[in-house]
Amino acid sequence: MKNAFIPLAAALLAASFAGTAQGTEKISLLERKAPDVSSLPSGPYRDLVVLGQQLSTRAFAHIGPEVKDPAKRFAGNNLACTSCHQAEAAKPFAMPWVGVAAVFPQYRAREDDISTVEKRVNGCMQRSMNGRALPLESREMKAFVAYISFLSQGVPGGAALEGAAPSRPGFPTGVPIPKPAASCMPPSAPRATAPKDRACAPDVPATRRVTPSRRCGARTASTREQG
Ligand code: HEC
Questions:
Q1: Residues with beta carbon inside 6 Å of ligand 1?
Q2: How far is the CA of 7 from the centre of ligand 1 (A)?
Q3: Are 84 and 123 in contact (CB under 8 A)?
Q4: Residue of 29, 82, 85 with the most ligand 1 atoms within 8 Å of its CB, for mutation
Q5: Pick from 21, 85, 133, 214: most CB atoms within 10 A?
Q6: How far apart are CA 217 and CA 80, in angstroms?
Q7: For residues 221 and 200, what is the distance between their CA atoms, to the nearest angstrom?
Q8: Roughly what angle, to the nearest 10 degrees, separates helices 117-126 and 139-151?
Q9: Which alpha helices (DSSP H) does 38-128 contain, by range?
Q10: Which residues make Cβ contacts (< 8 Å) with residue 204, sequence separation at least 6?
């Protein structure tokens, strides 16, 4: 009787290693604590990561359509990245940036092209932020990439992440890529022009929407304004 369990145990063991052999280690973002910027020693790297975090939570104050320097007006709306990428872009199932650095550069069959983290940032700059692409050599782009790679530290390349964006590899094909709610506005952003009650949740398929949708920037503008 006892021996009946041996093939089962062997099969389970093989199954659990199969993923690792293909480089698809499974990590759940629900159980993982996001790295804390304050743990970094002071210096230019920390400064860049902190700028990336600030740009994410208060994009409108740095690269928004109403900033003083016209050359810095990259975004066409007053959203923050964290209007959609909640909890400083670390919240599971809210398209977290945790692990993004581990999946790029990435081959995209649809475009037959290599996508990079910078291209993903500029994809959101142009669509979600309704603006123009950040130059690759700009300090803002470097800051976003530094913050994304900081959030991704410890996540191995090719890992399958539970709680990551649906557009990541590892998701079943045929799942529609959610359409960003480009025209929604944070209620407390300066001179918002869009209807204030418009929900900011991206149009994620119902099966993926595990967290209740929240209003644009509800957290962003109020908690970050003082800092
Ligand atoms: C209006 C909502 C919205 C805003 C604002 C927004 N994004 Fe996104 N972002 C999305 C959606 C939806 C996706 C996933 C779907 C896709 O691939 O287009 C995404 C995906 C991403 C990804 C890839 C994530 C992954 O797991 O592959 C990055 C990086 C990113 N956004 C960066 C940014 C940056 C930087 C900003 C601010 C400058 C920003 N986003 C603002 C909605 C938004």
A1: 59, 79, 81, 83-85, 95, 97, 100, 120-121, 124-125, 128-129, 144, 148, 164-165, 167-168, 177-178, 180-182, 202
A2: 45
A3: no
A4: 85
A5: 85
A6: 7
A7: 14
A8: 120
A9: 44-57, 59-63, 86-89, 100-103, 117-126
A10: 166, 178
Alpha carbon 29 to its chain centroid, in Å, reads 12
Nearest to 219 by CA among 111, 128, 90: 90
Taking each helix axis from N to C end, the angle separating 44-57 and 139-151, rounded to the nearest 10 degrees, works out to 90
Q: Along the 227 residues of the chain, how does pLDDT read in single tens digits?
A: 445 555 544 444 444 434 444 457 888 999 888 899 999 999 999 999 999 999 999 999 999 999 999 999 999 999 999 999 999 999 999 999 999 998 889 888 988 999 999 999 999 999 999 999 999 999 999 999 999 999 999 999 878 889 987 666 544 333 344 444 444 444 444 444 444 334 344 434 433 333 333 333 333 333 333 33
pTM: 0.72
The span from the CA of 58 to the CA of 62, in Å, is 7
**Residue whose pair of structure tokens reads 């964290």 in the numeric block:** 82
Output the six-digit token pair for 114.
Answer: 């290599």
